Structure formats: C-alpha cells, structure tokens
C-alpha cells in the first residue's frame, strides 16, 4: 500500500496545504496508524481512501493548532471538506490536467531549482524513494543528497512556486527535467537499487502511466515519445529478467518467448514516429538501442555494431561515464572482451559504481584472468545493495575461484 498510495497522498496534501514537510509527515503518520490498526481491525475496503483521509485529518489537526493567519485558516477550510475523498485523489487546475502527481512533477521541475534538485525532490516526494536510494541513483553520498532535498523544499516555499502544470508556452523549459524524473523513476523500478526484488513493478507501472500522460500533454515533443518508447521496450523484457527464484538472468540468456510482443510493437511504432520529426535526442537513441535488442530473435542475431555506434552517438550527446561503460560492453560483444576491457580501463570517475567493477570482472573472466576477475567481483559485491545482483555476483565469484 505504501508503494501504491504514497505518491497520491503526498501530492494531494501538497496541493491542499502547500506545505511539503507537513504533507510528508502526515502521510507517514497515516501509514504508522495503519500499522497499528489494520492488524487488529482488518484492512479497510478502500485502503487508499482510508490512508488519504487519515493523513488529511492529521494535517487538519496540525493546521488548526497552528492557525494564526488567514492563509492557514483557508487551508483548514480546504481540508475540512468531505470526509471521504474521491478515489483518484485528484483535482483540476487551469491546465486541465486532472492528476495531482503530474502537477507535482511540474512543480518540482520549476526552473528556479537546479536539475539535480528537481529530479531528487520528485523521486523523494512522488515515489517515496529513500534519500539513500536517490543518492545511489546520482552516485553521490547520502548526506549530500539530504542537503539538496532540504534546500529544494525551502526554495519552493520561499519563492512561492505554484503547484500546477504551467501554461503551454512554458512547458518546453521544464521538459528536460520532467523527462529526467520519469526516466530515473522507471530505472529504479527496472533495476531496484536496494531490496530483495530486482524489479519494482509498481515504479515501472507508475513511470509508464505518467509517461503516457506526458506524451498526450505534449504530442509534438519527440523526446517524450522517445522516453515512452524506451520504457515500453525495456519493460517488455520484465518477465524474462529473473528466474523462478528471483535471481538475475542476463539479457543473452533470457527466454525471448517471455518478452511482451505487444509492448515491443507499440514501442517501436512510437520510436519511428518520434524519429520522423528529425529532432533526435538521448531518449530516442536509447530507445533505438532497446529496439535493436528487441528485434533480435536470438541473442546471436543482435546487431552489436549498430548498438556500439548508437552508444557513441549517445555519449556525444550526454558525455556520461555510464554511457561510456555501456558502450564498452557493446565493443566487447562486437570486437571481443580484450577490446572491451581496453575501453573500460580507460574510463575514470566510476570507481564507486558497482557495475563498473562488475563489467570489468566479467571481461576478465572471459579472458580467463581469474585472480583479477575475482578481485573485481569482490569490489562490485562491496558496492552492491540489490539482493538479486549480490547473489548473481557471488555465484560468478565462486565460479572464478573454484579450485
């Protein structure tokens, strides 16, 4: 219920109170109350409505105690409406968008905030990701991320940034930030940074839903179409990415009969429509890479030369070290592990990223350099927080240290 309802509850309370900290604290109180009462009284018929009402009543109590001016009294009046909120927990503003969560994303993505603050604040407030999970996504220390979140909330409050989707002529200035939010939200669902499950279906589904809403809101934005295509093409492989025990299955070993053909077809059609506009961007290029994988009937038919070229294009667009690492993998698959390892060893700034060491370990394993591979697997294991990835890396470490 936390995964399903957190974003809706917090977004609704932020809309009605304008107070981010109050919204998060009262939502937390509602879940704490559920832990106390549901085991005793049973789960309510409509858990989402129960949680929203409980959080709203808690906010109402807090505001009543602190009401000293007309603005606080107005918030009390708003919260004192019908005791049972509508099930979709949404409202309507002059944008015509009836989704509190999408409005919350656009509020977080105000140009007065830095891009990293925009993305981090949305992931914390909308998706309920912990500060540690967000710090992991940005490859920064947790205290650094905590400070960014606090500063972002203060800036929104003191600058009076409105809670709404901006008018159409202002949408383009926030597009990059909103797309980045949805991209990272989906990534955390597609490959969860912590926990027992590799895939968090709730986050993938939420990111897809919001991406569809955004594409409908901005039908002429090719990168919005590209991102939706990318999500569909990646999510299409979900059923094949883990085995019956929940352990990671590499792309080359996946049963492609389990891939979702209708999602692949929709994703490819969206990508083709975006590319016809002649404005290629990073999400379209990533979708094109995903389409290369999706179009290969078996792993041996994968066009690694095309994927290597696409990663080169993506690196020129982004300058991302992670993209450079992905390109190294493609080079290894196309030209052999020794060529790929040479590219990996030329990268810098990724020593704290577990997939850098995991990639290097795999290439060393393929070259039968077992001792070096074992050291790299150990470094990857020390940095990995996903249970599924830890089990996979531990098995590989055992393989290279046998005998």
In short:
The chain has helices at 2-17, 20-41, 47-66, 70-79, 100-108, 115-125, 131-138, 142-159, 172-190, 201-217, 222-235, 261-275, 282-295, 304-318, 321-335, 337-345, 354-366, 370-383, 387-401.
Describe it.
The structure is a single chain. The protein is mostly helical and 403 residues long. It has helices at 2-17, 20-41, 47-66, 70-79, 100-108, 115-125, 131-138, 142-159, 172-190, 201-217, 222-235, 261-275, 282-295, 304-318, 321-335, 337-345, 354-366, 370-383, 387-401. Helix content is 68%, strand content 0%. The protein starts with a helix and ends with a helix.
Secondary structure topology:
Blueprint: H1 2-17, H2 20-41, H3 47-66, H4 70-79, H5 100-108, H6 115-125, H7 131-138, H8 142-159, H9 172-190, H10 201-217, H11 222-235, H12 261-275, H13 282-295, H14 304-318, H15 321-335, H16 337-345, H17 354-366, H18 370-383, H19 387-401
Helix pairs in contact: 1-2, 1-3, 1-5, 2-3, 3-4, 6-7, 6-8, 6-9, 7-8, 9-10, 9-11, 10-11, 11-12, 11-13, 12-13, 13-14, 14-15, 15-16, 16-17, 17-18, 18-19
């Amino acid at each position: 219920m936390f995964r399903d309802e957190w974003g809706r509850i917090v977004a609704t309370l932020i809309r009605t109170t304008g107070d981010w900290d109050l919204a998060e604290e009262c939502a937390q109180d509602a879940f704490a109350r559920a832990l106390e009462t549901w085991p005793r009284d049973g789960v309510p018929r409509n858990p989402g409505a129960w949680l929203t009402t409980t959080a709203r009543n808690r906010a109402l109590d807090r505001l009543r105690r602190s009401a000293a001016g007309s603005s606080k009294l107005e918030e009390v009046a708003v919260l004192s409406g019908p005791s049972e909120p509508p099930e979709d927990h949404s409202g309507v503003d002059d944008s015509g968008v009836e989704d509190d969560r999408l409005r919350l994303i656009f509020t977080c993505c105000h140009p007065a905030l830095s891009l990293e603050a925009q993305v981090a604040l949305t992931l914390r407030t909308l998706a309920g990701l912990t500060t540690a999970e967000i710090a992991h996504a940005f490859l920064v220390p947790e205290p650094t991320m905590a400070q960014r979140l606090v500063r972002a909330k203060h800036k929104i409050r003191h600058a009076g940034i409105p809670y709404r989707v901006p008018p159409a002529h202002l949408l383009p200035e926030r597009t990059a930030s909103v797309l980045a939010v949805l991209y990272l939200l989906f990534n955390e669902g597609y490959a969860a940074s912590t926990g027992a499950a590799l895939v968090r279906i709730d986050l993938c589904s939420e990111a897809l839903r919001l991406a569809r809403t955004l594409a409908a809101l901005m039908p002429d934005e090719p990168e919005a179409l590209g991102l939706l295509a990318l999500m569909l093409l990646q999510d299409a492989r979900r059923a094949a990415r883990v085995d019956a025990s929940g352990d990671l299955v590499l792309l080359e070993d996946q049963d492609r009969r389990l891939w979702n053909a209708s999602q692949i077809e929709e994703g490819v059609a969206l990508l083709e429509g975006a590319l016809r506009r002649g404005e290629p961007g990073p999400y379209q290029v990533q979708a094109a890479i995903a389409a290369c994988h999706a179009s290969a009937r078996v792993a041996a038919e994968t066009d690694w030369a095309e994927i290597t070229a696409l990663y080169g294009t993506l690196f020129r667009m982004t300058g991302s070290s992670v993209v450079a690492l992905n390109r190294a993998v493609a080079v290894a698959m196309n030209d052999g592990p020794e060529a790929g390892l040479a590219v990996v060893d030329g990268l810098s700034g990724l020593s704290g990223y577990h997939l850098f060491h995991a990639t290097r370990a795999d290439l060393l394993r393929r070259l039968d350099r077992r001792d070096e591979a074992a050291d790299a697997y150990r470094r990857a294991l020390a940095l990995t927080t996903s249970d599924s990835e830890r089990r996979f890396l531990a098995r590989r470490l055992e393989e290279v240290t046998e005998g």
